[in-house]
Amino acid sequence: MFGMGSALETLCGQAYGAKQLHMLGVYLQRSWIILTMMCICLLPIYLLATPILLLFHQNKEIASLTGKYSLYMIPQLFAFGLNFPIQKFLLAQSKVMITAAVAGAALVFHLFLNWLLIVQLRLGLAGAAIALNASWWFVVLGQFTYIAMGYCPGVWNGFSRLAFKNLGAFTKLSIGSAIMMCLEFWFLMILIVIAGNLKNAQIAVAAMSICMNLSGWQNMIFFGLNSAISVRVSNELGAGRPRAAHFSVLVVLMSSVTLGIFFFVLIVALRNVYGVPFTNNPEVVDAVSRLAIVFAFSLFLNSIQPVLSGVAVGAGWQWLIAYVNLGCYYLIGVPLGYLLAFPLNKGIQGMWTGQLAGVGLQTAVLIFITWKTNWNYEASQASSRIKKWGGSTKIPVVNSELISV
């Protein structure tokens, strides 16, 4: 659903740049319809969580508790379906501080509810579920209240019948966004599953978890750049300013490469100690230390790849990047990691090398695609997309010569 909601980064961003402000509210409502339908499709997983887990031979007690907890969490599922589109809707207008303020208030509210329901009232699992549900709906209602109170003038004009038009094309772009993102996240999850089958699996999984935890912290920075460049590229293309989109890509790439070099040097310099804060097991610390070089290269690539993905989302290339992810991750990365880890007995280093190869190839392909991009053509495509899906723009595409990055 996060991926499907990301389709709004393309559509709302381009419509906002083209000054077709009324279309942002329509796009938001279309996304709500599609994601609510997706929530209904996912509902059986929540309802049948226990038998699904038992089918995969999970512990009966854990499966039973998980099934009970998943029933409690159904309200959160539908909150997801409403929340992600609202976030993208606000980000397309560069309204970042309101999302941060609502999230901060929700965090305080969430901590209070956990203390009240779990510590004071001792409601246990049910209390944790109530706290999560309430906090997620607090975010949804807080953001929508901001919109409905008129702080997005010209953008939100109430509910419209236009929301039910062109749902097929909108769904196609949403599914492309979801596939693009799922292929990327599932790639990392598959590697953890593979690590569980290595010799000394506990040490391997612990070492991978530490590296992925650190990588996740780094990604928080670059997902911010991802959102920023996605909004900027979509805004500039929608406004018919391909040179500005081109320049924005160059600026963010230089920034991300600089940060990537910093993280690379930091990991190499601290290779013998960066695992210590996470564990007191010397074997795990040693395993993490042996991963330092390939992990440092991973952090460097992970500083560039999210930014290029943001460029792709801003330009509306979701389906193209989905195919790139499929080829690089699942035809190259996973098989190579498995080959190195098991037949060639390279263990966790071999598996992480496979992951590095997949990400490296994907990054190289994204760089090539971005370099060969005709930004004037992308601006004209943005204009056509806005007209096709309910808007009309007379903004000319300037600087008609070929522009490549």
From TrEMBL:
Domain of life from the UniProt record: Eukaryota
Pfam family, one: MatE
Bilayer disposition of the protein: Multi-pass membrane protein
Cellular localisation: Membrane
Xref: InterPro entries: MATE_euk, MATE_fam
Keyword Membrane: yes
The keyword Membrane belongs to this UniProt entry's keyword annotation: yes
Membrane-spanning intervals of the chain: 32-57, 69-86, 98-118, 125-149, 169-196, 245-270, 291-313, 319-340, 352-371
GO cellular component: membrane
Record's signal peptide: none
GO biological process: xenobiotic detoxification by transmembrane export across the plasma membrane
Keywords: Membrane, Transmembrane, Transmembrane helix
GO molecular function: antiporter activity; xenobiotic transmembrane transporter activity
Family annotation (NCBIfam families): matE
PANTHER family: MULTIDRUG RESISTANCE PROTEIN
Family stated for the protein in its record: Belongs to the multi antimicrobial extrusion (MATE) (TC 2.A.66.1) family.
UniProt-recorded name of the protein: Protein DETOXIFICATION
Organism: Rhynchospora pubera
Lineage of the organism: Eukaryota, Viridiplantae, Streptophyta, Embryophyta, Tracheophyta
